[in-house]
Design goal:
Rossmann fold; six-stranded parallel β-sheet
Amino acid sequence: MKVFGIAGYKNAGKTGLMERLVADITQRGFSVSTLKHAHHVFDVDQPGKDSFRHRAAGAHQVVLSSAKRWAMMTELRDTAEPPLVDLLDRMSPVDLILIEGWKRDAHPKIEAHRAAAGHPLIAPDDPTIRAVASDTPLTIDRPVFDLNNTTAIADFILTEVGL
């Protein structure tokens, strides 16, 4: 499987770019999966639901399944968050996995950058960032794309991964 990331600071446009890239690349006939890193506590379950009650009772993993989809939740309890490579190993085979976040990991990525967010660029000090998608012109030693030019960004990613 091919892997490529979208990295950047908060409010840089990562999620919107990911959403547009998934739509663009799947419309081209490629299968795409995503991984999203969260720096905060989150829950995909709802209090009172059976699966929530299973986890609250102490289950390590809970699988929900229906005719439309299935999901597995794993409680880490007091163990460390698994590294990205371990999560990738658990993914079903697809043509491309797009990763949102994990900006300091070693996979190739595009940096999403919005000037109004006020954060410095990561790219100058990170060779894993192959290009920058920005809402403002930049002068840097790698390609810079308009943050809203999804087609050009998708073309770049597909070329980079050999698809």
